[in-house]
Amino acid sequence: MTNRWKSIGLAAFIAGLSLTASYAEAAGVLTIGRREDSTTFDPIKTAQNIDNWVFSNVYDVLVRVDKTGTKLEPGLAESWTTSEDGLTYVFKIRDAKFSDGSPLTAEDAAFSLLRIRDDAGSLWSDSYKVIDTAVATDPHTLTIKLKNPSAPFLSTLALPNASVISKAGMESLGPDAYAEKPIGSGAFTVDEWRRGDRIILKKNPNFWQADRVKLDGVEWISVPDDNTRMLNVQAGQLDAAIFVPFSRVEEMKKDANLNVLIDPSTREDHLLINHAHGDLGKKEVRQALDLAIDKKAIVDAVTFGQGTIANSYIPKGALYYYADNLQRPYDPEKAKKMLADAGVSNLTLNYLIRAGDEVDEQTAVLVQQQLAKAGITANLQKVDPSQEWDMTVAGDYDISVNYWTNDILDPDQKTTFVLGHDSNNNYSTNYKNEAVKELVAKARLELDPKKREQMYVDLQKTAKDDVNWIDLYYSPYINVARKNVENFYQNPLGRFFLEDTVKN
């Protein structure tokens, strides 16, 4: 899913950093620099990586994705069975507690699943409407009946947004208070959230795997500027940092005090297009934009060889990825002719950019130059990162680079969110194709692997033909940690296994 951030004042950050660093060193607290601040701790009301990556260690899910990012394993459900007709799932809930010490029961699990299905604020309801009933038949038994057999159902239970929350806590605190300081079920609990600055997590002694957790706590500290964040980890003011700029990888590798961590990912960067804005609603215009962008030049100049050209919204190596999907060549003259044939001249676009993101800014300059060769003017609008996401959601943009990482093993989640969804206007692109939306729903229900694969091949072909967005490149996760930090690891779906991280 997407990644967005909030800004902090650099002076305030530096002023408070020395105290934080000394406390962290004394108390075994891992400090992690990230670009963005979180937006909420209500799992169903966000689609942002930076929220889910924290959720994964504050909440737990019924079914987890393993460290390799390739298979499912037990989480809060220690085992499960499935009926022969594929409609009934029975989960045995392990003996676990919430962070406040209250017992975690099958009733909490049922409540959480029905909430993500039914709550008006849920961004993920479509993926869970297949649930007919979810009932706690006893405190440790959850029985789920589906309306139809669903191929991705078990995978969707591993989505961090489907985390098990406390029914009693939500009902007593209310969603707003719960979203600020939640009652969790994971390895850490939220001690304090300093908006725009940091989230302070402490080890959860009531976590069912508490013996596994080596750290006393974790602080996620917002440092929006890439250069400042790298300098802070080099200076030892941070233990680790995520989103190492491509341009800094080789330099950071030469620092004897650091480990640069390059992990396989499901990340795909793309150029969002707002179909609701004028000529961008014409497929021929979007196809011309695709032809006018030189992806190889972007990969070479921006990723320093770390990336590969993307040809599908499904990332390379993921389930049902179609390797032979169309990849339009760079052809600005053909793009110019297509625009003329479509009756479009002097096309001028507002290109929204996150200030302080080195890669985003470099990409924008290249794309601007490339589009100009096709007679397209792109006006670059740099905005504070705290504004950018809200502007995107509001549709206050024409084009803007973003990225997505998968959160579940099955392609249904991303496909639903970007091609077959209504509540988020298909990832704020306003893409509309009723036949595609119908096929997305059918693919979710198809149990024959070959038939299902063909459906996703067709979806990838149609998305490319329609240009729902412009695929740019795939790339790994690139993070950095001080040499005294061990097991700072992110699996291909983005989950940080902080319960296994050690700070010596």
Quick recap of the structure?
By secondary structure, the protein is an alpha+beta fold. The chain has helices at residues 10-27, 49-58, 106-118, 125-128, 153-156, 167-173, 175-180, 226-234, 249-253, 283-291, 295-303, 332-341, 358-372, 385-393, 412-419, 425-428, 434-445, 449-466, and strands at 29-34, 63-65, 72-74, 77-82, 88-93, 96-97, 103-104, 131-138, 141-146, 188-194, 198-203, 217-222, 240-241, 258-273, 308-309, 348-354, 377-383, 399-404, 469-482, 485-486, 502-503. The protein contains 18 helices and 21 strands.
Could you explain the architecture of this structure?
- By secondary structure, the chain is of the alpha+beta class.
- The chain contains 18 helices and 21 strands.
- The strands form 5 sheets. Strands 1, 10, 11, 12, 13, 14, 15, 16, 17, 18 and 19 form an 11-stranded mixed beta sheet that branches.
- α11 (295-303) runs antiparallel to α13.
- The longest helix is centred in the first third of the chain and has 18 residues, at 10-27.
- Residues 4-27 have low confidence and may be disordered.
Give the structural class. Answer: alpha+beta
| Shape by Cα distribution | globular
- Which spans have pLDDT < 50 for at least 5 consecutive residues? 4-27
What is the percent of helical residues?
25-40%
- Strand-residue fraction? 15-25%
Name the average pLDDT.
93
Figure out the total of helices. 18
User: What is the alpha-carbon Rg in Å?
Assistant: 23 Å
Query: What is the CA-CA span between the terminal residues?
Result: 32 Å
